[in-house]
Write a structure and sequence with these properties.
The complex is a heterodimer of chains A (242) and B (347). In chain A, the strands form two sheets. Chain A has a six-stranded mixed sheet with strand order 6-7-8-3-9-10, with helices on both faces. In chain A, strands 2-1-4-5 form a four-stranded antiparallel sheet, with helices on one face. The relative contact order of chain A is 0.18. Chain A has 242 residues and is α/β, with parallel strands linked by helices. The longest helix of chain A has 18 residues, at 185-202. In chain A, 36% of the residues lie in helices and 24% in strands. Chain A has one domain (41-67, 83-239): Rossmann fold (3-Layer(aba) Sandwich), CATH 3.40.50. Chain A contains nine helices and ten strands. Chain A has helices at 3-9, 55-62, 85-92, 110-118, 126-139, 155-167, 185-202, 213-218, 236-240; strands at residues 13-22, 29-39, 44-48, 70-75, 78-79, 95-98, 173-177, 206-209, 221-226, 229-234. Chain B has two domains: 2-220, no CATH class; 222-345, no CATH class. In chain B, strands 3-4-8-5-7-6 form a six-stranded mixed β-barrel. A two-stranded antiparallel ribbon of chain B has the order 2-9. In chain B, helix 7 crosses helix 8 (222-252), helix 8 packs across helix 11 and helix 10 runs antiparallel to helix 11. Chain B starts with 14 loop residues before the first strand and ends in a 13-residue tail after the last helix. Classes of the chains: A alpha/beta (242), B alpha+beta (347). The A-B interface holds A 56, 59-60, 63, 65-66, 86, 89-90, 92-95, 97, 99-100, 103, 105, 116-117, 120-121, 165-166, 169, 177 and B 255-256, 259-266, 342-343, 345-347.
Chain lengths: 242, 347
């Protein structure tokens, strides 16, 4: 097999037989049970399911925030199972994370909040910092807001800044945990459109946990989880196509 | 503890001869003046000077309660070596018998002699119930060991302390001050003197005797432990306060520490953030610590008349303590970062 064809077979995110259990002994509580799926670049994959079904556990495992107990997660062919704490920390630098609430540092302005994402693995020179921040803020439509503090921004604007922070370190995947939960319809639509533009432009996948039916309609793939198990995988945009 | 050395530091000499039983200059033994004069011919010795030094009861005329004062008996021909800044007029006054100079920096309980000297021609006091005349002032200042100083000639000293066998004896002295000739090294001359000394005397360099006196107050007197305990208490309380500030800051920002861990910052970076905060706090708090310490010194100096001074080494020492408090408090507070679970950011 040539390296080109081999590279072509490597999925950006491949999850196989992933099982995760909280607690020990009689206190054991399974969170994920034999979960398997793959996602491709430029694809929005929505993880849906009721509260407590295992969505957050799945995201935290993909993000390298927990150690894998059983099964496999491969990001661009690199196995996360068995990684040391240092390897997991380096892995996290390659992930763009968008939280349910923007979690911007209230004592830092927009530019400084974005810089936190940009300088996670490298220290930029002053001129590079300015150029990078300008480019990132432009890409999320927040140019002109660089000196504003989070309290001076709307919820939608804060979430855009958190998107800029997430992509600041050129991640291999974006993980989002119900990022539109506190946004109105207009802001939700704008944010998801922004994220879709970003993943297409950067050729990376987006894994998003959501309850929002509007996002589900826009997703390339929907994976439904219940009680820690994948109960269905759909491609709504494919079925919507004529 | 600088105050413990007192007048010793102002002596214009290089070496000092004391009785071999001396544990502190507050309790000097007498020895034969021949021990001093025998050193006059040793190469490198430029001059030797006797100094009489003891404690005696002092009261001004009209005062009921006597107080213990230090009495210096000086050889008037060589008073420049004593280094207490006596004027020509004061030196001449001491040639009169039963005449003394009063240390104007003595504690107020010794009487306002300066005021009395302005108001009346003859100020009378008593040393061990022997009448003396105060004919001027010197500026020396008290120490831990003495609250007031009286300066007199060697002859008056021996006269007014005549009821004590040792102090009345003109062949005895309490300190032998030695000045080294130009071109000679103090340590080398000291080494050449020491083998020739009989066992009843001991030779110190001036700095060595100052250090010896300080160590006596630090290690043998309760005041040394009290100072040490005060510093330890201040350090402990300061550390706890700084720890509480850092701990509160960590807890109130734990969510953001979690975010930073989640996006890939290592725990060492977060520890660095807390340590940086601690150092910044030490820099910000230092002017306050210094001003509080300096104010404390001003009050202590006013209340005790002791020569407290905020010197450079004390300023650096104060900052060192503040920095050590900050680092220790940061090390304690950093342990709370372990409670940061980045996985919680998805809840």
């Amino acid at each position: 097999m040539s390296s080109n064809s081999r590279a072509a077979l490597i999925m950006p995110l491949s999850i196989r037989s992933l099982t995760h259990i909280y607690g020990a002994g009689s206190q054991q509580e399974p969170a994920l049970n034999n979960v398997s799926f793959e996602i491709s670049n430029r694809e929005l994959t929505a993880i849906v399911g009721p509260s407590g079904c295992g969505k957050s556990t799945l995201l935290s495992l993909v993000a390298g925030l927990r150690s894998i107990q059983s099964g496999s997660i491969q990001l661009n062919g690199v196995e996360l199972k068995g990684c040391t704490a240092l390897q997991l920390q380096r892995h996290r630098q390659q992930i763009g994370i968008i939280f349910q609430s923007p979690k911007l540092m209230p004592f830092l302005n927009t530019a400084e909040n974005v810089l936190i994402g940009a300088e996670v693995s490298t220290t930029l020179s002053v001129s590079n910092r300015l150029a990078k921040i300008e480019s990132l803020l432009m890409s999320v439509g927040m140019i002109g807001h660089s000196h504003k503090f989070p309290r001076q921004l709307s919820g939608g604007q804060c979430q855009r800044v958190s998107v800029a922070r997430a992509i600041a370190n050129d991640p291999m995947i974006i993980i989002a945990d119900e990022p539109t939960a506190s946004l109105d319809f207009k802001s939700t639509k704008a944010l998801v459109s922004l994220l879709l533009d970003i993943i297409k432009l950067r050729d990376i996948p987006l894994l998003m946990a959501t309850h929002d039916s509007r996002i589900i309609e826009m997703a390339d793939r929907v994976i439904q989880i219940d009680d820690g198990r994948v109960v269905s995988q759909m491609q709504p945009s494919a079925t919507n196509d004529p | 503890m600088e105050s413990s050395a007192g007048i010793l530091k102002s002596l214009n000499c290089d070496l000092i001869l004391v009785h071999s039983d001396t544990v502190s200059v507050t309790n000097l033994g007498s020895f034969s003046d021949s021990r001093r004069t025998s050193l006059d011919y040793i190469p490198g010795v430029a001059e030797t000077v006797p100094l009489r030094w003891t404690y005696a009861k002092w009261k001004l005329s009209g005062q009921n309660k006597p107080r213990l004062a230090m009495v210096l008996g000086i050889d008037l021909s060589t008073q420049s070596l004593i280094g207490i800044g006596m004027s020509q007029r004061s030196t001449e006054a001491l040639f009169f018998p039963e005449t003394i100079l009063f240390d104007n920096k003595s504690r107020p309980e010794f009487g306002n002699v300066a005021n009395l000297l302005r108001q009346q021609h003859d100020v009378v006091g008593f040393i061990n119930n022997n009448r003396v005349h105060v004919d001027g002032l010197v500026e020396i200042g008290p120490s831990f060991g003495y609250d007031g100083i009286l300066v007199t000639s060697k002859e008056t000293y021996e006269s007014v302390l005549g009821n004590d066998h040792y102090f009345a004896d003109p062949t005895k002295i309490e300190l032998g001050l030695i000045r080294i000739a130009d071109g000679f090294k103090v340590e080398e001359v000291a080494q050449s003197i020491i083998p020739q000394l009989p066992p009843d005397v001991r030779l110190f360099t001036k700095t060595g005797l100052v250090k010896y006196e300080k160590e006596y107050w630090i290690s043998s007197k309760p005041i040394g432990y009290i100072f040490g305990f005060g510093i330890a208490m201040g350090f402990a309380v300061g550390t706890i306060i700084l720890y509480q500030i850092l701990f509160t800051d960590i807890i109130s920002n734990i969510e953001y520490y979690g975010v930073m861990l989640a996006i890939g910052y290592p725990m060492t970076y977060l520890r660095g953030v807390v340590a940086s905060q601690a150092v910044i706090m030490s820099i910000i708090s230092f002017p306050f610590a210094l001003s509080i310490s300096s104010t404390g010194y001003i009050f202590l100096k006013a209340f005790t008349s002791l020569p407290f001074r905020m010197s450079i080494d004390k300023i650096l020492g104060t900052y060192g303590l503040v920095l050590a408090m900050s680092i220790l408090s940061a090390m304690l507070a950093i342990s709370h970062l372990k409670s940061t679970n980045p996985a919680n950011v998805f809840k």
